[in-house]
Amino acid sequence: MAKPQGKCIFCGGSRLTHEHIMPAWVGRLLPEKATGFSKGGPAVRRVGDTFTIEVTPPRAKQGNLLGKTVRCVCLNCNGGWMKAIEDAVIPVLGPIVQGESVKLSPDQQKLVATWAAIRAAVYDRDDKKVSAVTQLDRDHLFHSRFPPESWLIWIARNDGGKLWSPSRYWHEIAYVGPRPKAGQPLQANCHLSVMSAGRLSIWVAGGEGHQFAPALGARLKTLGGTQIWPAARTSVDVALVDDEVLTDITLNFAIVR
Question: What is the pTM assigned to this prediction?
């Protein structure tokens, strides 16, 4: 029996294509093969009076990250509005990938944030069983061409350490909310992606819980990096951070929950 045709996560159309997690233009700027991507699965833990579905420790997967694709977007989206955003972001992010000091205008902040949100939404569908980005958020991305207002997106230049370079993608999901009823299916409702390509690092956080994003944002603000979503009204410098900060970001996601 033929496998049922999937639908595009953005427009609901058919004729799905394989969207790259890390686009090919990134590979052309990297001196080494880009390896390393990971994603965990759901588990339950109690933190104070809050019950969470936390993921198991992310499992590093070997292989070339530049070859990793997810079949979840249609030909029209992939070759249309998504390609337009990709083409526009290359001259903005390319210098950061190569370690240059860059200042981002408000419009550039919005562009990079939208590009990063698309990456996070696509990789979230790598395993539909542990997906956390809602269709409402994907619809918002599709119609507005901007990330959901509740998401937080940060950018930095990393110090070139081996832990997160030359390229890495880390994705974690969780549930934040009331204790689930007995037998109730558990569905993650918040997520964090940390992606690195060369000297470029971006982290994307979002969730349905009203307390989640502000709490995480308050912690991330103490670690460095430059917030680009919500975008600032003035130009901002892309901050320099070290490998340990990127690891602390992933740990702080667990602490906030």
Answer: 0.85
